[in-house]
User: Which sequence fits this backbone?
């Protein structure tokens, strides 16, 4: 069963971005390039920030190994996420307080365990 | 033959590693972190997609002699009428023959005669060449050296060794390593003078790159057997490969698999999640990896944030304990 990316709405993720325990899937979205559990938990980039930058870059297909679906329309896909919400579901706080990342973009989204 | 003269075929050894010119700067060292830790979004992606990981290759050595154009411009008729001319033509033919044959090669050895504190290394080459042995306690730290005469029969004495110690060494010329091997010195003082029976020589580049795994290191299975989502591997490699100086995606996947094996051997900190995902961390190197229940790799990288592993979910497990 495929899962949808909370950043770009790409519907072909192999795993849910977060497991029930709150752990990241470590999957790199082939569409927008967000790595769940790394881009957020380690790099400290939020869904909103990543989405904004991805849109500003022209919504390019990210993956080298996973080809874009036939007839892939980035704008139509992006319209789904932007029509739903302008930001991802608010993540619940992590069990342990995370130290801020080395840059100032801010902590990434977290889910409960 | 005068000292320092190097036959043309010795110089034409592009396939060999040079002691003096080898640069082992790992590919893209540091650059991957800067890219990743730029904390920008797809701009960073675009840079990563460009694949700007520097490949470090040893400088190529070049065949500097014979200079064929010079010889071909030599007035052939007059040279044939004089002794010097005959020599020139003869040298030209010999040089062409030598270059066709290729690089200097070891014809015998190396053999090692060891005592508790010394070793004598012997080997022969098919053409005259210099004699140099580099040796040390690890293949990546051949910090000492011994030298001998120029010739085809090479002898070098390695002084000041410690009894009961394994040494690694590389034999060759001042510029090229031709073979590597190891030996162990006997303990004091009984077995002095015994002739070691070294294991078969390994290719010279194993010591030059410094990337040789420990002799007992297991051989990684094919990538498709170790990486969970093979289609995603190029993206993981592009983003994290520089963390481990991986030369390509397969090398990156192999290192991730080896990391798990080492975790089991060394008992690295690990957590098992409810869904079976295993997370492993090496505090010393900063490497982190996640594996599916079947042991296939999900990702492998070096987190930049302290406490990253501590914040990961799961129950601590001792990987040394059979499950
Ligand atoms: Zn996405």
Assistant:
């Amino acid at each position: 069963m495929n899962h949808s990316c909370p950043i770009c709405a790409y519907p072909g993720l192999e795993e849910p971005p977060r497991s029930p325990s709150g752990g990241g899937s470590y999957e790199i979205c082939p569409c927008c390039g967000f790595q769940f559990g790394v881009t957020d938990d380690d790099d400290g980039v939020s869904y909103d920030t990543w989405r904004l930058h991805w849109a500003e870059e022209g919504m390019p297909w990210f993956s080298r190994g996973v080809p874009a679906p036939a007839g892939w329309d980035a704008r139509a896909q992006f319209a789904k996420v932007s029509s739903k919400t302008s930001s991802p579901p608010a993540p619940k706080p992590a069990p342990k307080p995370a130290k801020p990342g080395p840059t100032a973009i801010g902590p990434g989204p977290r889910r409960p365990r | 033959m005068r000292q320092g003269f190097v036959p043309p075929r010795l110089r034409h050894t592009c396939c060999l590693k040079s002691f003096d010119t080898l640069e082992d700067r790992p590919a893209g060292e540091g650059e991957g972190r800067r890219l990743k830790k730029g904390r920008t979004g797809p701009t960073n992606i675009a840079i990563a997609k460009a694949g700007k990981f520097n490949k470090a290759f040893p400088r190529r050595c070049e065949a500097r002699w014979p200079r064929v154009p010079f010889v071909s411009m030599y007035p052939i008729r007059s040279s044939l009428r004089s002794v010097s001319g005959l020599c020139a033509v003869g040298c030209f033919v010999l040089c062409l023959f030598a270059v066709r044959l290729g690089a200097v090669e070891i014809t015998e050895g190396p053999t090692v005669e060891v005592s508790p504190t010394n070793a004598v290394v012997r080997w022969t080459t098919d053409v005259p060449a210099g004699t140099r042995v580099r040796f040390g306690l690890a293949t990546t730290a051949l910090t000492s050296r011994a030298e001998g005469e120029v010739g085809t029969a090479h002898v070098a004495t390695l002084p000041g060794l410690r009894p009961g110690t394994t040494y690694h060494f590389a034999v060759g010329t001042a510029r090229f390593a031709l073979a590597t091997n190891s030996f162990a010195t006997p303990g004091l003082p009984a077995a002095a003078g015994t002739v070691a029976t070294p294991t078969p020589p390994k290719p010279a580049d194993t010591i030059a790159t410094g990337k040789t795994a420990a002799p007992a290191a297991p051989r990684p299975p094919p990538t498709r057997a170790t990486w969970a989502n093979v289609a995603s591997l190029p993206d993981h490699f592009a983003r994290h490969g520089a963390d481990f100086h991986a030369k390509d995606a397969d090398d990156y996947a192999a290192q991730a698999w080896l990391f798990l094996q080492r975790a089991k051997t060394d008992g690295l900190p690990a957590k098992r999640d409810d869904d079976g995902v295993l997370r492993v961390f090496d505090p010393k190197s900063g490497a982190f990896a996640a594996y599916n229940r079947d042991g296939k790799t999900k990702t492998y990288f070096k987190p930049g944030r302290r406490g990253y592993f501590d914040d990961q979910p799961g129950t601590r497990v001792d990987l040394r304990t059979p499950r």
Observations:
- Residues A 5, 7-8, 10, 29, 31-32, 34 surround zinc ion (CB under 6 Å).
- Residues 1-80, 93-102, 189-214 of chain B have pLDDT under 50 and may be disordered.
- Chain B touches chain A through 41 residues (CB under 8 Å).
